[in-house]
Recover the amino acids of this structure.
């Protein structure tokens, strides 16, 4: 038997016997000296074969991601009505769509800025999907126009509807200004482009608080947070939650998964 094969056999045998011993008997299978020697052999093997550590690390990361997705999916299913059927939340696309893409975002989030053009591409190539925009100005305490832009967007939606809202949404991100650089003039120009006019101050605090509570219930810790899910027949296998920046291709893949 070759040394590498023998080493692998020794390590595997040790792990198996040790697991059985812990489960069924308090007596150690190996003496302390034997355990020390086996540990030395295992360490020497791993130093000589670092690809094993890489493979183990990749597998652990995949397992961790799978667990995280399952946890997200369960929370999405628990909050499905709030995600899909909030009348005051801006939405674009057919009401009878089979799949929904939901984004929690902040207009001053730099990562949301990178996602905006990717989502815009997806909206053009997948017009049969329902796109739902959850205004979540998490940077409002730091930059006042984070909240101001969110409130103006909700006002555009309330006053002018879906197409005007998308026009406003994309116009804000087209400024390229984030992390506190967005100005009131930028907000006014984007709103004017959408055909909005000032009719008085609306109170959107209850809706923004509701969005905040929903995001936290889902386990989102920052923006952007994107959920792709079927409108009916949701299962953990057809829901995708992406906590962070994402590409057009990743969203498209998630849409295909939701159709399954």
């Amino acid at each position: 038997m070759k040394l590498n094969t023998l080493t692998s056999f020794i390590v595997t045998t040790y792990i198996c016997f040790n697991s059985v011993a812990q489960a069924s008997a308090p007596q150690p299978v190996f003496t302390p000296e034997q355990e020390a020697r086996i540990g030395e052999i295992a360490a020497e093997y791993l130093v000589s074969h670092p690809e094993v550590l890489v493979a183990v690390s990749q597998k652990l990361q995949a397992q961790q991601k799978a667990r995280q997705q399952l946890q997200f999916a369960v929370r999405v299913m628990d909050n499905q009505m709030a995600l899909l059927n909030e009348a005051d939340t801006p939405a674009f696309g057919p009401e009878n769509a089979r799949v929904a893409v939901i984004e929690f975002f902040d207009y001053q989030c730099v990562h949301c800025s990178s996602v905006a053009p990717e989502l815009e591409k997806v909206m053009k190539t997948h017009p049969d999907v329902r796109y739902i925009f959850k205004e979540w100005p998490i940077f409002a305490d730091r930059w006042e126009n984070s909240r101001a832009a969110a409130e103006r967007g909700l006002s555009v939606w309330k006053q002018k509807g879906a197409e005007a809202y998308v026009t406003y949404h994309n116009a804000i991100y087209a400024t390229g200004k984030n992390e506190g650089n967005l100005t009131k003039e930028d907000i006014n120009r984007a709103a004017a482009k959408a055909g909005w006019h000032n009719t008085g101050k609306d109170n959107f605090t209850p809706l923004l608080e509701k969005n905040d509570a929903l995001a936290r219930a889902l386990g989102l810790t920052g923006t952007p947070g994107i959920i792709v899910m079927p409108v009916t027949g949701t299962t953990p296998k057809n829901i995708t939650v992406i906590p962070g920046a994402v590409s057009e291709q990743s969203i498209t893949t998630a849409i295909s998964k939701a159709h399954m």
Notes: The CA atoms of residues 160 and 196 lie 7 Å apart.
